[in-house]
């Protein structure tokens, strides 16, 4: 069940929403992202105790919610090993959806985005269904398709505790009419085996996420010695192309940096992936100097332009308005002619 793509206008994937302007993974962040020009909105998906998919970057939620302030949940604090790492905090799989709905989101990196602290305590944790509803409603309002780009987080772990992500993910997508290779959906994972399994159950486009270090956790469990570096070789890409339609790659795999943070020459990865029929979506683009290469301090637009000119097919961005502006400057436009509002403080 595979379909190959050819590169066209680069898509803008709102990374956890417009997370540069609002606390990540909130309906407010997703709604703003759409207003700022995003083509797709990206929810990371984890499971509740009662099997509902919700949007959080991790199943440990003390960094992105006010759970630590809820005395009624003090006894839920615990330590667990997640993908080989010991983590202490509060975990989504220990809460029902009703309980999680009493929590409120907060800014994950307040030291870099102090302006977002203004929104701490205002927004609920959204369900996957609520995010789909938002995308559909906004698509009708602005007369352009807003796609969804869900990621299965820690799929091996959730399967091990009896809360597999894939079945409710596909059931929710099917119930909402997302079917076929041309549906405005990409399903992504840093693991391999769950994507391979999904490829036998759906025609929806699949994305193999690739980091610049480490290896897929399902490889760790199975004893597979291959790393992400092995997966970006020609033979690795050919294997990915057997079950996926795109790669979502750390941008340093496209243009690496030296020890000072200065960019080096582009690698051949974009060309190699396209030769295998794979789309290339790069992550993560952020405006803060803390994240930018030395060459583009104070100039995030320059970084986007460099990567767009390489011919990649999309970017994951915390600031979709910046990506949109560079797209326009390079002659790319989406179908809507409506003006975009500036982000509100």
TrEMBL record:
InterPro entries xrefs: GP_PDE_dom, PLC-like_Pdiesterase_TIM-brl
EC number, UniProt record: 3.1.4.46
Gene3D superfamilies documented for this protein: Phosphatidylinositol (PI) phosphodiesterase
GO cellular component: periplasmic space
Keywords: Glycerol metabolism, Hydrolase, Signal
A single MF term (Gene Ontology): glycerophosphodiester phosphodiesterase activity
Catalyzed chemical reaction(s): a sn-glycero-3-phosphodiester + H2O = an alcohol + sn-glycerol 3-phosphate + H(+)
Name of protein: glycerophosphodiester phosphodiesterase
Organism of provenance: Nostoc linckia z8
